[in-house]
Design brief:
The protein has 13 helices and no strands. The chain has helices at residues 2-7, 14-26, 30-43, 50-63, 66-78, 85-97, 101-113, 120-132, 136-149, 156-168, 172-184, 191-203, 207-219. The longest helix has 14 residues, at 30-43.
């Protein structure tokens, strides 16, 4: 379509280009979206604004191509345009899917230093990347910061990832500490939250603590499942 527009001497605007790239990213043709952005940039076929970059970054996230995502984000940072939370979030998502926890963590820190408020999804992606690589210190530090600052407030999914990460390395005390802080702040604790905390205590041979958590779960409105 872009080639046809060029043949007919028609220059697509940013809205048209971002729509085309987003359509590719939402389907299974994310690579076409990235290629489309590259063609447009090379041919100066349209004004590449933050929305177009965001669409291209989303395509990179879909395809887990974190290197290209970093290049796109670097272009944005070097230009007069300020990367949006969506652009940062997509780059972080690409790094998370590419198992690059340190790069994802650096992007989150860079995001904050540039005055861009990270979304809950971006924070969850970094916590997931750290947790998957057994970087429980970083995962718990991010969650603890969210619990204190509430910018943004963590959800159950993010906290569950952190609790699981602590349990995977046998740090049952930190897993329990995170759980207690969630409970104290009356933040959502679901079945997975209880199960992950009890599993961490079980790994640490803290069966009395796990048993006490099971009793709390029974008294609450949280349902038990087969894992429990």
């Amino acid at each position: 379509l872009l080639s046809r527009l060029q043949v007919n001497a028609l220059k697509p605007d940013a809205f048209t280009l971002s729509t085309l790239i987003s359509s590719c990213a939402q389907g299974s043709a994310w690579h076409c979206g990235v290629h489309l952005w590259a063609l447009a940039r090379q041919a100066h076929a349209a004004e590449l604004d933050v929305v177009v970059y965001g669409a291209a970054l989303s395509a990179c996230e879909k395809g887990s191509i974190w290197r290209i995502a970093l290049g796109l984000l670097r272009d944005l940072e070097c230009s007069r345009m300020k990367p949006s939370a969506i652009a940062y979030g997509a780059a972080i998502g690409a790094c998370e899917k590419g198992n690059r926890w340190s790069v994802a963590l650096a992007l989150l820190e860079n995001m904050r230093s540039n005055g861009v408020l990270p979304s809950r999804i971006a924070c969850s992606s970094v916590v997931l990347a750290c947790g998957r690589s057994l970087q429980w210190q970083h995962a718990s530090q991010i969650i603890w910061g969210l619990l204190q600052e509430k910018k943004p407030a963590p959800d159950a999914v993010t906290c569950n990832i952190g609790i699981n990460a602590c349990g995977d390395v046998g740090n049952w005390m930190l897993a329990l500490h995170l759980f207690r802080e969630l409970w104290r702040q009356r933040l959502p604790c679901d079945t997975t939250t209880f199960n992950a905390t009890m599993a961490a205590c079980d790994e640490g041979r803290q069966w009395q603590v796990a048993s006490a958590l099971l009793g709390e779960m029974r008294q609450s409105s949280v349902r038990m499942d087969d894992v429990t």
